[in-house]
User: Fold this.
Amino acid sequence: MKIVVHIGDGKTGSSSIQEYLEKSSESLSADNIKYLGIMLEHCDKILHPDWQFRGGSDRFFADEPSQASDQFLKSLQQELCNADAAYDKAVISNEWIFSRPHHIVPALRHIQNMGHEVEVILYVRQPVKWLISAYTQWGIKHKTYPGRVRPFKEWVKGRIPNYAEDIGIWKNEFQDRLRVFNYDELEDVVEHFCETIGTGFIPTMNKRVNVVPGQDYLDIWAFFNNQFEGEVVANHFEMVAKYIGIDKGLKKIGSHGDLMPTVSDVNDLQDKLRSEISHLNTALHEQGQPTLAVEIPFTPSKGPSSWDIDQWLLMMVFNLSDRVKQLQDQINKMQKIEEKQ
Assistant:
């Protein structure tokens, strides 16, 4: 059996790929492909329930690498014994893997030595674009740090990716069985992934995940998360957005321009990342793929006008007003029933 391992990178459509695979078991089976999940959660037998579920990546990668690799190997071996006769390919997709090779590579090496073919798929994007996208996701939408919402300039410190070391490990281990693609050049990464693993693409099954919202909505999101001293998960704002009622005072946040990257920020990053881009481009060039842009044209985003924000506030007020009226009508009906009794 051939094992296809999609290792990321993060912010290159991995969640959309996983969502598509999750919904496409029938079409995958028709092509003799089994999706084993993000953390082998679709294996027939779950040997390690403490991490072998869709959200188990943080637990698995927190373990000591050799122990984690041994557990991963045992689970994968068990599944291959069960599925080898029924399927031609097994697919794993987890964007945590790329920057944590020591947890996975030894297991995949052993699987290869057993006679199974292993193919590794990696999507990469221009690093400055990656960092800006990552800031939107983990700096604003999911505030993964304590304190106030940090401007991009602060958040990015200490987060410069080390592509040279990571991609070097994967290249040395898998050689031409590592397939590297330029995410920036793809119209639809899910469709491209389906073509790469040899299964038909069904557009109606495709749904983009973690889409960047409009700038005015994102600024309101940042303002909301700024009210909390601790970490704020991404769906917190989404859950309460329908029931806005923040009445405990304001913790003011800097303007949109203070938060988002400036031309100077981007130019500094492009200078720092030239060597990293060179390593990625070498890997892409070796596989005949279009290379990443060394520099990107950048125009600072403009913040929303006061009227943009006012319209959001008006919509919230109207929605809340409707809800209050509905509740009042229900109370009035209940009171009339009680009076009759």
